[in-house]
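User: Can you predict the 3D structure for this chain?
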Amino acid sequence: LWNARAAKYIVTALRFSPDGRTLASTAGIGEDTQVIKLWDVVSGKEIGSPLTGHSAHVFSLLFWPDGKRLASASCEDETIRVWDVASQKCLDVLRGQAWIRRLALLPDGKTLVSGGDVDGTISLWDTSTMHLRQPHVTIPEKVLAWSFTSNSRSVVTLTEAGQVAQWTGDDFQRKEPLMKIGSDFIINPPYQPFSKDGRFLAVGSINGVLRVWDLSRRALQRRWTNTTGPVVPLGFQSDGNKLFTWSLTDKLVHKWDWAKGEEVQPPLTVPPWTTVAAASPDGRLGVMADEAGNVWRVNLSNGTKQRLTLPVLEASDVAFSPDGKLVAVSSITTVTRVWDTSNWQAQAANLFGLFSVAFSPDGKRLATAGGKAQAVNLWDTASWKNVLTLPGESG
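Assistant: Here is the predicted structure, written as structure tokens:
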């Protein structure tokens, strides 16, 4: 009756609408992997524009009995998408099952059934409830640094003008100014000036003065110095009671009991051209890297350093897992790599992420920051499979 080029290489799935007037097709392998096309069965002409949203092969398609909705399932991006056929817009994205191969719909017209490839599981989904939300929230200020609070329901921010505020609500748009710390401060991204629970804020200055605020009390908690040159905070230890700082003139890293303003161990000399550093959650192990690709393992108890032979070039960030067993290093020129800190064996070598890395509190996910199309990637730390990619509007 007619023929058409539906894919560059392989058509992986076909499905007729219940009235027989529309044919849906998907592609596999090549640049059109994620594309779903709709065809007029009588004329063979493509209907509207391709349905895009999947990031990998689609192996199963399913129309609702009334033909108004279409479901598609992808193995590799591990999602099911529900589409409005008339508008060709995605209505919902279902996540939670690995390597989805097949779809079916129960007679109630709302329960979708999916079959998994890897573990043989069958999942049931209630499609009467929509899961799509606003893809992202924009805080309408130029933010230098931010942190979630301990309950993850609000965000604290610091602006260039030194304004500290807390943002609440479902869309984080309700602003509560907390304090102004002035503009005579230094922070050094990607280092985090907030404690992990968002309670404390630490900043440095060009004249060596360090300050720590308790945001819950809206008060300056400690002000002290031990140098006349620029000093920046490298971050709080996980419990928030200790603070690492970096004196830029003498290239020394200090560890403070900041509540007392006292050093808790001898200062550590930083190798020239060091760009990133991090301490393990227990404060015993440190990792430093420089622009030339040198990486050092540091015993933070006595300051001894060991140079590691690791394939790192122009490191941009480093992060430890919550248990301290893994360390991830991102690189501006290559990719993010992960090592086991007990033997420095590679665990993951080709994770896309150029600018920043962070482990989730439970250690099950690693987040890497990239570019526009892949602003954030989430990786499963057991399999090192990509579980989510978030696009961005800029670098």
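The chain has a mean pLDDT of 89. The two ends are 48 Å apart (CA to CA).
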